[in-house]
Amino acid sequence: MPALRYAYYPGCVAQGACRELDLSTRAIAPLLDIELVVLKEASCCGSGTFKENSWLLEDTVNARNIALAEQLALPLLTHCSTCQGVIGHVDERLKTFQRDRPEYVAEINQVLTQQGCAPYQGTTEVKHLLWAIVGDVGIDQLRDRVRRPLTGLRCAAFYGCYLLRAQERLPFDHPLHPTSMEQVFEAVGATPIDYEGRTQCCGWPISSYATAASFAMAAQRLQSAIAKGADCIVTPCPLCHLNLDARQPEIAQQVGVPLNLPILHLPQLVGLALGLSPEELGLRKHVVSTQPVLTKLGL
């Protein structure tokens, strides 16, 4: 299979609180014949907050991010569902506005060129790592590259909000009844677990001002997955990971019951199946220990 090349947008959280996400994404890329060209000058997407002040601000900031990928003639690859939702939605809006409101796009490009940046052209696409694995690498190719089948591991997908419903068009899934992560689970030998809440919000967006409500939402997702016998939750979003993993001890304290459910990033799960070690994937960096998952896999 020829190498797939992407303009890699690491985002903020994977370079800060969830460094293991960046580590594991980089680790699995060559094993899937993926070349990542890092967008070192990219900025934060705004996590959906810029538009609370100004749609123009969100569109301009992310038009610049997209233009960086366009300069390389590569698709922009994210591994954060929030980044995907925000940047992908901006790309959709601006492509529509090129036809319907060209003066708006011209206003954005005037700002970009005044700052010495390339203008937005609308010539590339914004793609999450999950879509790249399912649509570009392909499920059959992924299955063929498995070196350590995750037999017996019961995985609960947690899609969250932004990946599924921020954009008008999803390339490989349904906004309400997704199956792409479950396809990945089956390809690597794991068993998908269906449970209530896998496509709902984790509570992170309200965690800074309604912490108790945020924790209650996260607790519902965790307890539902536990009740269905999940060995772990796997998420394509580091913000969901922060709420479900890093804050899980506080959530357990609030609900008054032990939880201790490991939360894996998508590339960590894939990396285990490709034969990478827990250390190469940053699986020792989580707040909730991933050792139960590793023990089940004989690691």
Protein model, in words:
InterPro entries: Cys_rich_dom, HdrB/HdrD_reductase. Keywords: Oxidoreductase. Residues 6-87, 156-245 form the Cysteine-rich domain. This is Succinate dehydrogenase subunit C. This protein is of the alpha/beta class. It folds into two domains: 4-128, Glutathione S-transferase Yfyf (Class Pi), Chain A, domain 2 (Up-down Bundle); 138-297, 3-Layer(aba) Sandwich (Rossmann fold), CATH 3.40.50. Helix content is 47%, strand content 10%. It is built from 13 helices and eight strands. The chain has helices at residues 19-28, 50-53, 55-71, 81-100, 102-114, 129-144, 162-165, 180-187, 211-227, 238-246, 248-255, 266-273, 291-296, and strands spanning 4-8, 34-38, 76-78, 126-128, 154-157, 191-193, 232-235, 263-265. A four-stranded parallel β-sheet has the order 2-1-3-4, with helices on both faces. Strands 6-5-7-8 form a four-stranded parallel β-sheet, sandwiched between helices.
Number of domains: 2
Oligomer: single chain
Mean pLDDT: 94
In the predicted model, the low-confidence regions spanning at least 5 consecutive residues are none
**What overall geometry do the principal axes of the alpha carbons give?**
globular
Helix count equals 13
How large, in whole angstroms, is the Cα Rg?
A: 19 Å
Q: Kindly, what is the distance between the CA atoms of the first and last residues, rounded to a whole number of angstroms? A: 30 Å
Largest sheet: 4 strands, parallel
- The side-by-side strand order for the widest beta sheet comes to 2-1-3-4
Name the helix and strand elements from N-terminus to C-terminus, one letter apiece: EHEHHEHHEHEHHEHEHHEHH
